[in-house]
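I am going through a labmate's work and have reached the protein record below. What it holds is a sequence and that sequence's fold in token form. Please read both lines and tell me whether the tokens look consistent with the sequence. Do not assume that whoever made the record got everything right. Thanks in advance; the entry in question is below.
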Amino acid sequence: MYLNQHEIQSLLNKSFDNFVDFVNTLPDIRFTASPYGKWSAGQQLDHLTKSIRPISSALGFPRITLRYFGISQSPSRPYDKLIADYQRALDIGLKAGRAYHPGVIYPAQRPALLQSFLLQKIKLSDKLLTWSETDLDKYRLPHPLLGKITIREMLYYIAYHNQHHLGKLKDQELQGHTWQNQLQQLIF
């Protein structure tokens, strides 16, 4: 499915809001604890913010600067195709670079992390309004796993990436990784 600017904005808002809503339901221990070596909710939030920040900044660059990454010679992939390509990259073991890895997160960092994440949402929203439908398909940015992709594809990616990490957090709960069970396993 090919999404226009309004649909992309709606998808982005939903992905940010759903992630924030879920994180806000977590007690501090679940926000900061890393179950079975996986990233905690706080670390996932930090990772998402780190991965979105350079994109939201780049959307404010003069278009002439973005020509450095080349002009797309083909139309943007539909949302579903881009997500399938991203999933294939993950399936073969590609991962985020160290620059996007989170550090240790403490409960007191939650408000600042949430504020920073929501600031990226606002920046993306404001900057998206300055882009034409044509330019979303014309200009490209580098993605660490997908190579150079159009701005439209990058926005698809951000929305999916937020949902992907929210799904990981929810799966930890569904797969018996509840915090109460983990605590009981440690104690008994």
Remarks:
- The longest strand covers residues 140-143.
- The chain has a mean pLDDT of 92.
